[in-house]
Structures are given as C-alpha cells and as structure tokens.
Amino acid sequence: MTYLDILEKWAIYCEYDREQTRFNLLSKNYVLHKVGKNIEMLLSEYDPSGMLAVIYTKMQFQALLQGVNNPPPMTALLS
Q: pLDDT tens digits for 40-71?
C-alpha cells in the first residue's frame, strides 16, 4: 500500500469533496474539510510523495478519535 492509497482511503472515509461549500457545523464535516484542504496543500506544495501528508493525516485522525474539537495545527509537524 502506498502513501497515496492511504490518503485515498482517508478521503473516502471523510467523504471529502473539494467543491463543498456548505457544512453542518454541529458535525465534524467542516473540520474534516479543512484537513482535506491541508492535505491537498501538502501534496501540491511540499511533498508530492505523500509521506508528510500521511503523517499529518495520522495526527488528525488520532485527534478525531480522542474527541478533540480543534485538531493540532500543521505547525505541530515541525515540532
């Protein structure tokens, strides 16, 4: 399984749609959409291989499972 396969499964799990503009703010839809946008940015601007995006996705998924309302920012990757 490649990095991009993992990211594809994440997008399916989150039902990510890059064109979505309306969200149910009582759910995690908006938070997951922001994560998806950040993953796109990581892939296009920093790491086309996808390794950095997978690490970021893992951090966000762990925060989601722990019930954190505001997942860690991308700057947490640098610390």
A: 999 999 988 999 999 999 998 888 888 766 66
Measured distance CA(26)–CA(45) in Å, rounded: 31
Q: Where are the alpha helices (DSSP H) in the chain?
A: 3-14, 29-41, 51-65
Q: What DSSP state is assigned to residue 19?
A: T
pTM of the predicted model over 0.70: yes
Q: Identify the DSSP state of 50.
A: S
How many angstroms from the chain centroid is the CA of residue 56? 7
Q: Closest by alpha carbon to 27, among 74, 64, 66?
A: 64
